[in-house]
Write a structure and sequence with these properties.
Layout lengths: L12 E3 L19 H11 L3 H8 L18 E2 L5 E2 L7 H5 L4 H5 L1 H10 L3 E3 L6
Antiparallel strand pairs: 1-4, 2-3
The structure holds iron/sulfur cluster.
Iron/sulfur cluster binds next to loops.
Length: 127
């Protein structure tokens, strides 16, 4: 059965992930992780939190490091790109592309729509 995708109130598109990995490699983008998320990811990786922070967090202690280029450090290569911490991926990643700020910021909405092949417009764009 074809996955027709998910819709949410107010969003002008539907979304069905195509495993492009594009959302995990946006130039200028970053993934901020909460304290609970940091703990969960460290536990998932079998690391203590200090070692996790040293290896995977930016010096600010809240953003994930980048891997190659603009890629998230946890984005795996392959025919279908995948998140190597998928079961414990951050909330922001789980919610893509249904971020509240996408509704408020037309430039961000256009970027999201350009980035993600899993997005299908439900209504014609007016901007
Ligand atoms: S944590 Fe996983 S889902 Fe989130 S940006 Fe990195 S690779 Fe993508």
């Amino acid at each position: 059965m074809t996955d027709v995708g998910e819709t949410r109130d107010g969003f002008p598109f539907r979304f069905a992930c195509r495993r492009s990995g594009n959302c995990c490699a946006i130039p200028g983008g970053f993934v901020r992780v909460t304290a609970d998320e940091r703990s969960a990811i460290a536990a998932h990786l079998g690391m203590d939190e200090r070692a996790f922070a040293s290896r995977y967090l930016q010096p600010d202690g809240v953003r994930l490091k980048e891997g190659l280029g603009h890629r998230c450090v946890f984005l795996e290569d392959g025919a279908a790109a995948g998140c190597s911490i998928y079961p414990v991926r951050p909330h922001k990643c789980r919610e893509w592309p249904f971020w509240p700020e996408v509704l408020e910021d037309a430039a961000l909405r256009r970027l999201v729509e350009r980035t993600c092949p899993g997005i299908t417009r439900l209504t014609p764009a007016r901007d």
